[in-house]
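User: Hey, my collaborator sent me this sequence without any context and asked if I could get a structure. I don't really work with proteins. Can you help?
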Amino acid sequence: MPVQQVTVPDIGGAEGAEVIELLVAVGDQIAVDQGLIVLESDKASMEIPSTVAGTVVQLLVAVGNQLSEGAPVAMIEVAAESAAVESKPEVSDAPQVGAQTAAGQPELPEAPAASQPELSEPAAAGQAVTAATAPTPAALEPKMPLSPTASTVPDREGDASESAQVYAGPAVRKLAREFGVSLGRVEGSGPQGRILKEDLQQFVQKSLREPAGATTGGAGLPVIPETDFSKFGEIEITQRSKLDKLTAANMHRSWLNVPHVTQFDEADITDLEEFRAGLKAEAQRRDVKLSPLPFVLKACAVALRDNPKLNSSLARGGEDLVYKKYIHIGMAVDTPAGLMVPVIRDVDRKTI
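Assistant: No problem. I've predicted the 3D structure and written it out in structure-token form, which is a compact way to encode the shape of the chain:
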């Protein structure tokens, strides 16, 4: 059967559009206008369709390639019923490649000398090509590595081979990549099972409602790679204490979940400092040091009492807001064992 080359059509003058997805693999049966690859330019993503029906003999591109108009995409063994030109006796087995001329005859390639096959000038109208002068399939093979099949394409969606077999448009595929969703797991509701944006959104919403499993590496954050610091100079290794690791985990959890608000204000504490100085003698009798910190804690307690929403927490997945009738404040303390945060309970009810 004739073999025809599919090239990138007019893509609006975009230069160097990147191949972000392979939609077919070698050996796949394809139909006319079925997507072969997905290109992404600075402005849009687009599927490059096949101009013929048949079997994919060879993919001439790989994920990450930069393509422009006219670049070869794939070699298709054209199905007999989909041949673009009625075969003549002298061209019965000659492979037909390239675009068609106005008279219906295909353009013929020269023997490729570069890394990609180049097409020659269109054949004259009505010109016939004999098997003796037509290039053989081996001559049509480009001098570039074969494109990886779907099973070896770099995984860009979690399961590239599975996503490549689904029926979805470029906008849906781009959205799936942004969500990190394998389209093979999404059930399409469009014509012929086509996956629509609504299907993808419903899948994501359903996934978010499901109970999340335990995560590792900092609440799902990338794990820090191991580094051999000894190659940079002298080091000393000590084992972290249980308290140190527990403190770090609790602080990290709070940092990720608690809103951080900073309020800058100025206050005249002249009278406060005079009052604090007057209590030094009593503090010494109790063998304590009266610093400004207890006064700051009391001020925070008053602020939380007067602004109860700041002393609230989300509950039931964000559906409820829990207002606390108590005011407990954690106070960071530097100890020989490391940083600790004891909780001072009922600060609003305690004396200085």
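In plain terms: The mean pLDDT is 75. You can pass these tokens on to your collaborator as they are.
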